[in-house]
Amino acid sequence: MIFTDALRQAERRNDSLLCVGLDPEPARFPGSWKDDAARIFDFCASIVDATHDLVIAFKPQIAYFAAHRAEDQLERLIAHIHRVAPEVPVILDAKRGDIGSTAEQYAREAFERYQADAVTLSPFMGYDSIEPYLRYAGKGAILLCRTSNPGGADLQALTLAGASGRPGDTVFEHIARLAQGEWNRGGQLALVVGATYPAEIERVRAIAPTLPLLIPGIGAQGGDAAATVRAGWRAQGGRTVAPIIVSSSRAVLYASRGDNFAAAARQAALATRFELNQARRGGSGA
Fold this sequence. Notes:
TIM Barrel
């Protein structure tokens, strides 16, 4: 199934716009698991088991696994997600960016080794750094566009003046135009836009009216869930035409430090899903 179709199916099935980010930090694990990197799979699988009927996607962040030499646990975790929730897409948050044969190897890593449904990428090196991922039919490539971190504006908000883009566009607007247009040859592209900048979400949505948007930054980073939905989600005739994947990590994963951590994660996910759905049913485009 094409990644974008899988998103819409998961949204309908689980009545959700929520993506749970899987960013395991052993120092924050509960009880006897604290500081035990060998428990990364167990911790994340418990979160998945508690929330898989509440989400549009899961998003494991590769650095949290690689830093603890836990790539084998990441493989097991993604296989576990596919087994217990085959309808829920898995986004590998890797933010890769390289050209030629190196990009081909990163694409093999994401889609063959880890069996992810989509991967986050940096578009800084241009289309030939993206194209190897698009050879995998149906897989998603999610390009950094307007990120949630304060320093994102250092480059992304710069204004273009030359012939490389539309004069007056910012860099992030130019990326959105490329992704909506000439780069999206297989219909596989999506964009990352941070929840901390709802005005920029709305601007990206205007330029890229049909692309899925991965929107991190609610919860611990302080992004407003209702503003995020109003800015980015669009539907017509009761059907989503512009999916959004609203990611929350720490607020769900570490809702409790006790043995009830999985149950607490479920309650946090339920609350966030409810907040997003309230905005969706009463907000822009509904």
